[in-house]
Amino acid sequence: MSSIAYNDLVVGARFEGPGRTITETDLSLSCMLTGDWHPIHADAEFAKKTPIGQRMLHGPFGILLVMGMATHLPEFADEVIAATGIQEWRYHAPIVVGDTLHTETEIVAKRITSDGRRAIIDRRFKLVNHQGKVIQDGLAGAMIRLGAAGTRS
């Protein structure tokens, strides 16, 4: 995908990212990073007896996936300075080893900051599995520095 300047970015535009299959390594890293080795994450025999029937990743792992997978959806021509926050994040289904997930991104708002040199881009992210089911979704913003590619409008 080519870079998109602020002026060319349209509210309502949608972008879909490539898939990524969740692995045992992802599950292990999630446990290691959080320090949470609850049996629902780390004990296959315990997890078999739960309604899901298998181990699942920690819910916040989905946020990490979305933020990483959607970094270039769209790829801004202007410099990304910072994330501005996450809102309304919801978990609809668990993430399990073997799921192939992709992101769907919609531009929901854009505005220039009061200094006129930066802009905020608000995006709705969806984390979708290989069956087309939305696993997680929410809103997140990014601040960009307007350059020659993103003149003010």
Give an overview of the whole structure.
There is one protein chain. This protein is an alpha+beta fold. The protein has a single domain, classed as Thiol Ester Dehydrase, Chain A. The chain is 20% helix and 36% strand. The protein has four helices and six strands, in the order ββααααββββ. It has helices at residues 24-34, 39-42, 44-48, 60-69; strands at 14-16, 20-21, 79-91, 100-112, 118-129, 134-145. Strands 1, 2, 3, 4, 5 and 6 form a six-stranded antiparallel β-sheet that branches. A hairpin with a 4-residue loop joins β5 (118-129) and β6 (134-145).
Text of the CATH class: Alpha Beta
- What CATH architecture would you give? Roll
Inertia-based shape: elongated
How many E-type strands? 6
Q: What is the name of the CATH topology?
A: Thiol Ester Dehydrase, Chain A
Per DSSP, the total helix count is: 4
Beta-strand content bin? 35-45%
- Under CATH, the homologous superfamily reads Hotdog Thioesterase
Radius of gyration computed on alpha carbons = 18 Å
Which blocks of ≥5 consecutive residues have pLDDT under 50? none
Helix content: 10-25%
- N-to-C span: 23 Å
